[in-house]
Amino acid sequence: MADKEKLLEVKDLKKYFKVSRNDTLKAVDGVSFDIYKGETLGLVGESGCGKSTTGRTIIRLYEPTAGQVVFDGKDIAGSLGTSGKKELTRRMQMIFQDPYASLNPRMMVNDIIAEGLDIHGLVKSKKERLERVYDLLETVGLNKEHASRYPHEFSGGQRQRIGIARALAVEPDFIIADEPISALDVSIQAQVVNLLQELQEKRGLTYLFIAHDLSMVKHISDRVGVMYLGNMAELATSDELYDHPLHPYTQALLSAIPVADPEIERSRERIILKGDVPSPINPPSGCRFRTRCPFAKAVCAEIRPNWHEVEEGHWVACHLHDDSVTMG
Amino acid sequence: MMGKLLEVKNLQVQFDIFGAHVQAVRGVTFELNKGETLAIVGESGSGKSVTSKALMGLIPNPPGKIKEGQIVFEGKDLVANTEKDWMKLRGKDISMIFQDPMTALNPTMKVGKQIMEGLILHQHMSKSQARERAIDLLRRVGIPNPEKRVEEYPHQFSGGMRQRVVIAIALACNPKVLIADEPTTALDVTIQAQILDLMRDIQKDTGTAIILITHDLGVVANMAQRVAVMYGGKIVETGTLDEIFYNPKHPYTWGLLSSMPKLHAKTDKLQAIPGTPPDLSNPPKGCPFAPRCPYAMKVCVDQMPAYTHLSETQKAACWLQDERAPKVEPPKTIGVGGE
């Protein structure tokens, strides 16, 4: 793991939104992680934890407030200019959550898929363009006839395949998939996840897979990061995270997922968290999770926990697992 | 033995839209016993929500209509009900929790008043009595500081808190049947755990029977005693919780169970169900799952299979259960209990 090549390094990334004259919403507040070449990093958390904002800030749909994003050795968080952004989107693509809203209803499927090819001048003739579109359609499990249709003629699962074909068109190295299966039915979800995994094997793609469905994230990811209220709470390989969660939030999150197995469900002890996620406009001091944490101590309100590596590859931000802090 | 509370017999619901006749529910039969939780699972378009709406008299007519069938509640067929009859029943004997707590509440009305409505209408309480009861209910569903919150509007509540309010409204008149249509789908997992816990707790106290409509098999395993699996407007298999999870007989149930990743075990590749659900404006003649079924035979396309009774509680509508059919083993992933 250690000698794997880093494709993306996110260092202390922050994204604030000004919501009114006096209030700032700190959607992402100092998040650091690496993504290695060819792996899938899963990012999980509840709504409002900043996982989507993290993805969107990396690909520069949002301008980062502070921090660094190093993609293949180059900082892409600072000013990029038009050509820099163009180069970025050639190598980095996104798949969106809602297959109904993310495809332009007035464009034919071949124009949707080929838009990236046109922008980056990757095809020389109309014939080549169409051939590429046919290839891509086949890759994602659709067929030629679909090229001249409009999005409304497709089901949700098929639309998501079109979204994947569009992302693949410019042959990117890195794909950010933001809840790509949440809007789909269970049987269709498996189709799309299998497709994403096949594509990764064939093309050596690297994924950032953002989702709230922890069992699906475990299935697809090599490593998983858990976010809470704009901070990263814990990050480890998916087996390590699910077998030995350290952060109380990760533990609660894992125990909250209902498992499709009646025997396990009958015998399970659940940690039920009290209350709701606090507002990111005025988040709790110190550790953000302390207001719902069953183990919170005085120190948790005062000092923000360090993001540190407890064991090789297992990162956590919690005073319970930091020897340098004495718990009150 | 528990008594039957509600019996649905051969229910058929059709919607006439754009010149097409969409047959959303095509002959559904099931019963609900006192105090139990029955889960109806299925994907979008399987007819599970339409079935539950029919039980509440909430099928908009036009375009929808109940073509055939009976809904027998306490010995009386509800299909013949007039709107006036329904109004006496809804919220009193049968009530409903909706999927989206953001839209289920009236944004212009204080939550207290929304809870009080049913109490004043059905139980003829005075305003002050109803207000007291509303505060009690809010406290019961775990809303802190209910004396103050009863005067607040829905937008002042978070998603999870709104769903608690919706549950308080549904429970106000101690209904005998509670229909929960995807009650936690719009909520985060930690909030989902809170709400499921609350529903189970309330059921223990009041003995309300719950019909739980969901697509999440995890929620089913957590809540239900019996399960009905719907596909293409029909119930394809029904049984107790353990029968459906550990000894399912219908290939669609197999498909559903193996297309989900397991949290407690390794899964190499998910078993996806190829294809898409049927178009119910032109429903298939035979088994609705036949076009996607890896075991489909000629007869499956031509003729709808009858139910085969596999035990006192389990039955499946599948030609594989016919004695002339070849023996088919379920996928390896099925029937493995525990860790």
TrEMBL record, chain A:
Residue ranges of the TM segments: none
Domain ABC transporter, chain residue ranges per copy: 8-254
Glycoprotein listed as a keyword: no
Superkingdom: Bacteria
Molecular function (Gene Ontology), one example: ATP binding
A UniProt-annotated Pfam family: ABC_tran
CDD domains, sorted: ABC_NikE_OppD_transporters
Keywords: ATP-binding, Nucleotide-binding, Transport
Family: Belongs to the ABC transporter superfamily.
Name of the protein described by the UniProt record: Oligopeptide/dipeptide ABC transporter ATP-binding protein
Species per Swiss-Prot/TrEMBL record: Sporolactobacillus spathodeae
